[in-house]
Amino acid sequence: MSDSPSPKRRGLLFVLSSPSGAGKSTIARMLLAADTQIAMSVSATTRPAREGEVSGRDYHFVTDEEFDRMLETDSFLEWAHVFGRRYGTLRNEVVRSIENGCDVLLDIDWQGTQQLKQIDPDIVRVFLLPPSMAELERRLTSRGTDSEDVIRGRMERAAAEISHWAEYDYVLVNDNADACLRRVHTILEAERLKASRRIGLTDFVRGLIG
């Protein structure tokens, strides 16, 4: 019998993207509650905090000047303009989590996903689609937080975002949150088992067979 230790696994970057209103934030919260081995990447943003949001938990809320300084010091893995504000994924936080074997969940758009793919080709990309554009508009309207003009702008942006669906590894229709969560979790668990992510697997197998 081999005395070799079981192979460990490096953390992975798990991306969820969707147009506004298609449910990625809801699915992200549900996934975090269901799985203790994955943590949310807390992005920096120049937008103001909304009611109930806490800096450091929901976002790192920064000024435009602070964001500029972070760009100058290469503090972001990726960043993008979204609805007139800037959002960025903090490099040090993500790298530290990955090196410690913790998976990182990123709630980002297609622009950020493209940037991350260039840095780390091993990321897992999941895109969530709404059941229909009519349902997407209904969800946006039911929030009661945006004007008709804002909703119209979000619908126009949604069509542009959906056009990038083919750039993702997995594409799911979010017609039921619980069912969608089960599919997302299945993808995550399967990706964790890939041989390419198992540190020391070659030595472990050699030890098994002598």
UniProtKB/TrEMBL annotation:
Keyword Kinase: yes
EC numbers on record: 2.7.4.8
Keywords assigned by UniProt, alphabetized: ATP-binding, Cytoplasm, Kinase, Nucleotide-binding, Transferase
GO MF annotation terms: ATP binding; GMP kinase activity
Main subcellular localisation: cytoplasm
Any Pfam family matching the protein: Guanylate_kin
Binding site for ATP: 18-25
Residue span, Guanylate kinase-like domain: 11-189
Assigned GO CC terms: cytosol
Catalytic activity line of the entry: GMP + ATP = GDP + ADP
Subcellular location: Cytoplasm
PROSITE patterns reported for this sequence: GUANYLATE_KINASE_1 (PS00856), GUANYLATE_KINASE_2 (PS50052)
Source domain of life: Bacteria
ATP-binding keyword on record: yes
CDD domains: GMPK
Annotated NCBIfam families: guanyl_kin
Function: Essential for recycling GMP and indirectly, cGMP.
Family, as annotated: Belongs to the guanylate kinase family.
HAMAP family the record matches: Guanylate_kinase
Protein name (database record): Guanylate kinase
Species, as recorded: Allosphingosinicella indica
Lineage: Bacteria, Pseudomonadati, Pseudomonadota, Alphaproteobacteria, Sphingomonadales
